[in-house]
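Hi P.,

Sorry for the delay on this. The queue was packed all week, but I finally got your sequence through. Input first:
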Amino acid sequence: MKKLLIISCLMLLSQLLLAQDYVNGYVLFAGQDTLACQVKIGGKKIDTNFSFLVLKGKEGVDEVYKAKEGKVVGYGIRDFGAWVDYRYVAVEKTNESGFFRLIDDGPNYKLYLHLVTTNVNGVVTTLPNYAIYKPNGEYVHVTTHLLGNWKKSLRKILADNPKYLPEVEKVGRFEIAEFVEKLNSSD
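Then the structure:
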């Protein structure tokens, strides 16, 4: 009976945590102003996702920022005690620009990730898309689909670091995160 009570309490607590609509966070606007705020991560109406950032505004009214408008450079939220950071990435050609999640905050390169799900003739695939940033703000978008040109993108971002250019030939399309991690841990 005691175990059942504990399990019931834990389930109730997890439901309360999952039902939370807003979390503490920050937003970095294009003018470089940083503001502490409440970021909407759930609810019945639009919430924060790849294309939108929704903040709790004055008097509880939601403020919606479209990623493609470029007014927001980045934002972060507290997720189970740790910061999760996102950055707006402008993507050329066929993919949509939006907020990518920081997965490697290294001294040489910052690696951001967005998972793209596609449905072609009933076959659903989810592939990583990356943005790799140098400290000077220069970046490349790296797609990993079968016809993607990830090696060309890696060569471009490593143009000023020629000692790693030969290693690009050994990198597979699903090994990009490990490769960037290796670049960040060297030197």
